[in-house]
């Protein structure tokens, strides 16, 4: 009797394991049969997307251009300000794309610091701020051409590509006078003033109420021509996708034909360097 039990015990364990496996398999099939139409469509689209990516990778490995052009836009977070850009690219080969771009932004001086102010008007305390010693806002418009060269990620099924971007072009610096709102010590009225090389009120914190209105000074802008170059690495997370989705990190240098008076009491410069990181999005065709 003991020998029979010893033989049957392992068989019972195997039978239990097989039964459990069959139970879970049958439950899996039952759940699959119970998928809603929306879930089935989601699975189908996922499979089609995977197959499409495999086909694109195969075409690229055979030397075919899978896209002809791309359009992208985004924002640069610069170490000396910010800018937005629009970019168009035309694929010349699997690894090389010709680019042109337009970029618009503002250059800020590293010594800029916001100074808070407070004033009373009609029984209310009005809080404001201004940048002490700022003489001009410097806005920039850049037109550039360059290339994007694939240096890593070829054949990567995850679709992540690393590219080098380099190029340059012309720049236009736009100097807009920086206005302050003050309480005039002579008339006791509120006025908006700019720095005029002799105005001591501009540097007197005791009379400043805050910065002037944003639109003040646009009709007094000065255009200063210049040029720029840049180099960057772009990490494209949608390489095998019609949608461009990328991060870019790089360096830029801009030179203007004259020294730019941005901050009083600081050295004026005509050559500016900055690093940046940008968020880029767009589409391919």
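^ Assign residues to that structure.
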């Amino acid at each position: 009797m003991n020998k029979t039990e010893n033989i049957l015990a392992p068989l019972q364990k195997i039978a239990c394991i097989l039964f459990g496996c069959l139970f879970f398999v049958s439950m899996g099939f039952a759940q699959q049969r119970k998928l809603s139409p929306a879930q089935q469509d989601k699975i189908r689209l996922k499979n089609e997307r995977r197959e499409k990516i495999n086909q694109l990778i195969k075409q690229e490995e055979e030397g075919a251009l899978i896209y002809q052009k791309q359009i992208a836009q985004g924002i640069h977070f610069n170490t000396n300000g910010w800018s937005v850009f629009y970019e168009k690219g035309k694929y010349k080969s699997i690894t090389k794309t010709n680019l042109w771009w337009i970029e618009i932004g503002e250059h800020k001086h590293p010594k800029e610091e916001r100074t808070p102010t407070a004033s009373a008007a009609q029984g209310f305390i009005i809080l404001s701020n201004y940048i002490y010693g700022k003489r001009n806002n410097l806005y920039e418009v850049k037109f550039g051409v360059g290339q994007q060269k694939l240096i890593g990620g070829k054949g990567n099924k995850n679709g992540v590509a690393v590219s080098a971007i380099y190029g340059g072009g012309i720049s236009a610096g736009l100097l807009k006078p920086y206005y302050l709102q003050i309480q005039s010590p002579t008339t006791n009225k509120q006025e908006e003033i700019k720095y005029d090389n002799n105005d001591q009120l501009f540097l007197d914190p005791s009379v400043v109420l805050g910065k002037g209105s944003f639109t003040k000074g646009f009709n007094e802008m000065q255009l200063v021509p210049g040029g720029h170059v840049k180099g960057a690495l772009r990490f494209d997370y949608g390489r095998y996708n019609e949608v461009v989705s990328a991060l870019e990190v790089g360096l830029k240098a801009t030179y203007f034909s004259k020294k730019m008076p941005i901050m009083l009491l600081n050295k004026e410069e005509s050559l500016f360097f900055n690093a940046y990181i940008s968020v880029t999005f767009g589409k391919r065709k």
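DSSP finds two helices and 13 strands in the chain.
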